[in-house]
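agent> Task received from the user: take the single chain below, predict its 3D structure, and emit structure tokens. No templates, no multimer pairing.
agent> Plan: (1) validate residues, (2) run structure prediction, (3) serialize to tokens, (4) report one or two observations.
agent> Step 1 OK, no nonstandard residues flagged.
tool_call: predict_structure(input=
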Amino acid sequence: MEKKITTPLTEEKVKDLKIGDTVLISGTVYTARDAAHARLVKLIEEGKELPMDIKDAIIYYVGPTPAKPGKALGSAGPTTSYRMDPYAPKLLDNGLKGMIGKGLRSKEVIDAIVRNNGVYFAAIGGAAALIGQCVKKAELIAYEDLGAEAVRKLEVEDLPVVVVIDSEGNNLYEKGQKEYLDSVNK
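)
tool_result: status=success, residues=186
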């Protein structure tokens, strides 16, 4: 089922999302990869303020290419998510509701998704240029020294993603693989 949501990603919106749903996200999405995640978690552990409000927010695991003239951002394809697994539970426990990336997540991350009524979306790898066109505005807000991996605040319109792990812990990667294997073994 295709759904449209606008951030902030409230608990009510999350509970309505189920694995396999195609979702078009509009509103504010933050970018961050592993180096930025390490810094964000360190700030949380030190009791310091984060450079953005992560309550009911979505973080997109992406290191976008530079913007071409007249564009807000260049190509913006998803990064493999397991690199953020050491940090994601702490961010979820502190208000983060959604993550966008690609690939499998650890049991610790899935447990934190369920515990915090969060959601994990997959963006389509190989569609970086298409995804970049959904970005209407990009603002660097932290860690400029990280270059493409700096934290940015994006304003997106109809960013296409798929719910891969829902707030109940259902996992499309596992379900899809099982259904495929069941059909092959009949």
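agent> Step 4: summary for the user.
Strands lie at 2-6, 22-31, 58-60, 98-101, 119-122, 135-142, 151-165.
agent> Done.
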